[in-house]
């Protein structure tokens, strides 16, 4: 067996987010988030599941850190629930909520696990939604204040910060498709939200620099590698538009200080101008320390005049393998994406802040044999390895997810974890993939046949 050896300082981690695992939705002074409201609205979530209890991580974090230790994680990426810190999104700080994260960080550090904090993984305080949420520019200043509270409290201990997780999902699934909280279907508003999220990212980075903190700050984008189904002009144009829609709409502002031209024109013709103020693009494109990438699948695109979205149609090849989310398994796409980012956008360090797969895991006699997840991870690690060999500065990798959890609109029906969670008893069981990952981390290499 050949071993592919990773760089000595390569970071092996795993990721979660607050609403998906914490539960304790109304405890210790926490305010309501838009996801509390959304999941409590009948018909929004598969099986009407909610995050009220989720994995009960709020009460079981010590046990969960023990499991991270057992796997051997170098680092753990989690997010902070804004309404736990500021129940109304602004104003009074809820000390108990803050203490939870201070304790979590201390315990992680004691366990030798580097904490990486995402400031916003979708659980906006409902009080701010009532004032328009991210469509209202005022939310930006409250976000900066919230970030400042955390920088003051945790800035000396936490060395890696992520402003936003997947602003594409927040804007387009939350405000255009309505599949996510706050469940709005208004594409013009979604474009304003995307812009406001980006400005808030810029202002938080600026604040971080002003405070002279020693750590690093970046943003996590959901990115995919886009391919044209054929060589025809029509298909290639559709693929190009998809590239602008899914990747460019956030990558271009962050690294080039402008929106992708073609799609920007289409949107403007259709919806008119959104509110972009003087200086916004400079704020958005100021220097960051790293880029976080969430990669799950590719997009294979052809042109279909009947498609409701500018002729863009996504093809799902029959011969491919799919996860339980019906996402095509396409590890080469990660290699293509990493090299493209490095060539066209940035030579800053890149982190895979999420990659992983949902499968219909079964627990049998206390064991979860998830060979398909092991294969998925191994193939994606190989792509990361190849990119590193080619000189792309990929510095770390975080499996999504540490444990099975609340998969947004899918509720608990999709299991992404390295750890199996029995939601009736809250018993955690390491899946075979967790033991496999343990060995990868220990040897800092993957074995290939
Ligand atoms: C999100 C996670 C989510 C995962 C799988 C990403 O879009 O950041 O919260 O669970 O993908 O869908």
From TrEMBL:
Enzyme class: hydrolase
Assigned keywords, A-Z: Carbohydrate metabolism, Cellulose degradation, Glycosidase, Hydrolase, Polysaccharide degradation
Binding-site list for substrate: 20, 121, 165, 296, 400, 407-408
EC number, UniProt record: 3.2.1.21
InterPro entries for this protein: GH, GH_1_N_CS, Glyco_hydro_1, Glyco_hydro_1_AS, Glyco_hydro_1_beta-glucosidase
GO molecular function annotation: beta-glucosidase activity
Reaction catalysed by this enzyme: Hydrolysis of terminal, non-reducing beta-D-glucosyl residues with release of beta-D-glucose
GO BP of this protein: cellulose catabolic process
Family: Belongs to the glycosyl hydrolase 1 family.
Full protein name: Beta-glucosidase
């Amino acid at each position: 067996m050949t071993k592919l050896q990773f760089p000595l300082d390569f970071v092996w981690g795993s990721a979660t987010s607050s609403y998906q695992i914490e539960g304790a939705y109304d405890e210790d002074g926490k305010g309501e988030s838009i996801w509390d409201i959304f999941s409590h609205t009948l018909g929004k979530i598969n099986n009407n599941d909610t995050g009220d209890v989720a994995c009960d991580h709020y009460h079981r974090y010590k046990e969960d850190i023990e499991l991270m230790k057992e796997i051997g994680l170098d680092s753990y990426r989690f997010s902070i629930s804004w309404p736990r810190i500021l129940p109304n999104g602004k104003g009074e700080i809820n000390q108990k909520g803050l203490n939870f994260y201070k304790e979590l960080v201390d315990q992680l550090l004691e366990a030798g696990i580097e904490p990486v904090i995402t400031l916003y993984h979708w659980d906006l305080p409902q009080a701010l939604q009532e004032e328009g949420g991210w469509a209202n520019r005022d939310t930006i200043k409250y976000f900066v204040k919230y970030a400042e509270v955390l920088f003051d409290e945790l800035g000396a201990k936490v060395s890696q910060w992520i402003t936003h997780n997947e602003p594409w999902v927040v804007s387009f699934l939350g405000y255009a498709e309505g599949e996510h909280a706050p469940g709005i279907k208004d594409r013009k508003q979604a474009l304003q939200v995307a812009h406001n999220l980006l400005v808030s990212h810029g202002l938080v980075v600026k604040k971080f620099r002003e405070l002279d903190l020693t750590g690093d700050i970046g943003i996590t984008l959901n990115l995919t590698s886009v391919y044209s189904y054929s060589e025809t002009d029509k298909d290639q144009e559709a693929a190009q538009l998809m590239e602008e829609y899914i990747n460019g709409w956030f990558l271009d502002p962050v690294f080039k200080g402008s929106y992708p031209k073609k799609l920007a024109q289409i949107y403007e013709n259709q919806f008119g101008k959104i509110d972009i103020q003087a200086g916004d693009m400079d704020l958005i494109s100021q220097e960051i320390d790293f880029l976080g990438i969430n990669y799950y699948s590719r997009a294979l695109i052809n042109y279909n005049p009947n498609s409701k979205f500018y002729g863009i149609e996504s093809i799902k090849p029959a011969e491919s393998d799919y996860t339980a989310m019906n996402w095509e398994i396409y590890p080469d796409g990660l290699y293509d994406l990493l090299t493209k980012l490095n060539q066209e956008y940035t030579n800053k360090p890149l982190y895979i802040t999420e990659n992983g797969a949902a499968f219909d895991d079964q627990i049998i006699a206390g064991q979860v044999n998830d060979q398909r997840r092991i294969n998925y991870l191994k193939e994606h690690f190989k792509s990361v390895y190849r990119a590193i060999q080619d000189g792309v500065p990929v510095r770390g990798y975080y499996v999504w997810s540490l444990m099975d959890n609340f998969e947004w609109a899918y509720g608990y029906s999709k299991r992404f974890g390295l750890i199996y969670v029995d939601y009736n008893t809250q018993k955690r069981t390491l899946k075979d993939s967790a033991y496999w990952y343990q060995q990868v981390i220990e040897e800092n290499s993957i074995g290939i046949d």
